[in-house]
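Severity: low
Component: inverse-folding endpoint
Summary: output formatting inconsistent between runs
Steps to reproduce: submit the following structure tokens with default settings.
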């Protein structure tokens, strides 16, 4: 159910490099016209401050931005990846060529504030599930081009990843069922084509739940079930498949869902309804 990017350093490295190259091309392009007003030999020092409490995530992307622009930029972190920062707390100190700091500022902060936003809301939700068996999952509702980065941020916040894409697990939804003929036929075809791959079925009522259970699905998603329906689903399944609840879930409903004994809750808002953390870079000294 989870892709551990923290352990898979090669996958994470490829994502960081791809993301940073694309972002720098988008922002700097053929050159930073405004930074060229600063003398080439000018040296600067700066600090990055969080304007609000946050779980910090994205330091690797932040560092890679400046490494691409000018490897002479030195960064000293005061807060580690995945740690909580208080409002107005210094996250890091930078020193290096002033042009490089100015050119990389926006792109580096964009990564840090975006991924910290995902990690922060994830941690908030995870805390509400504390002490229960229920785990928090993300979805594929991510910003285009930042799929792995945002799923990494969910891990930083303490959540788990659902499938990375359409290629690493099977999730049979309403239209797949209609095209295949039935839930049973869809699951049987999935087992035949992709043996050993996790098969999940999305259900919209208790009748479909019974069909998914009879077909031997590994995970059954309860899509927009009422609390009474979820309670009945847990009673019927009795551990024969994993149960995932999805649809119209918010922070206030998590505790109640956890008390019902479901295995997972999946929330698209972790990555879709993103609010970036308010960060600021301040220059403290510029010299020739």
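Observed output (run 2 of 3):
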């Amino acid at each position: 159910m989870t892709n551990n990017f923290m352990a898979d350093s090669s996958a994470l490295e490829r994502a960081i490099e791809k993301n940073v190259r694309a972002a720098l091309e988008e922002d700097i392009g053929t050159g930073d016209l405004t930074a060229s007003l600063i003398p080439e030999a000018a040296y600067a020092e700066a600090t990055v401050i969080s304007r609000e409490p946050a779980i910090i995530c994205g330091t690797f992307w932040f560092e890679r931005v400046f490494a691409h622009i000018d490897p002479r930029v030195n960064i000293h972190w005061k807060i580690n990846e995945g740690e909580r920062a208080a409002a107005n707390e210094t996250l890091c100190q930078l020193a290096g060529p002033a042009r490089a700091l100015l050119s990389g500022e926006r792109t580096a902060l964009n990564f840090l504030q975006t991924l910290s936003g995902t990690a922060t809301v994830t941690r908030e939700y995870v805390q509400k599930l504390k002490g229960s068996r229920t785990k928090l999952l993300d979805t594929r509702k991510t910003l285009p081009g930042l799929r792995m980065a945002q799923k990494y941020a969910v891990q930083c916040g303490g959540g788990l990843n659902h499938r990375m894409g359409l290629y690493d697990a099977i999730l049979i939804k309403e239209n797949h069922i209609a095209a295949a003929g039935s839930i049973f036929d869809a699951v049987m075809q999935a087992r035949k084509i992709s043996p050993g791959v996790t098969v999940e079925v999305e259900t919209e009522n208790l009748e479909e739940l019974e069909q998914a259970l009879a077909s031997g699905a590994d995970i059954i998603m309860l899509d927009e079930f009422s609390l009474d329906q979820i309670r009945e689903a847990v009673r019927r399944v009795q551990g024969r498949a994993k149960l995932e609840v999805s649809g119209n879930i918010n922070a206030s409903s998590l505790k109640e869902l956890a008390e019902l004994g479901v295995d997972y809750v999946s929330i698209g808002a972790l990555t879709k309804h993103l609010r970036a953390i308010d960060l600021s870079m301040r220059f403290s000294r510029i010299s020739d």
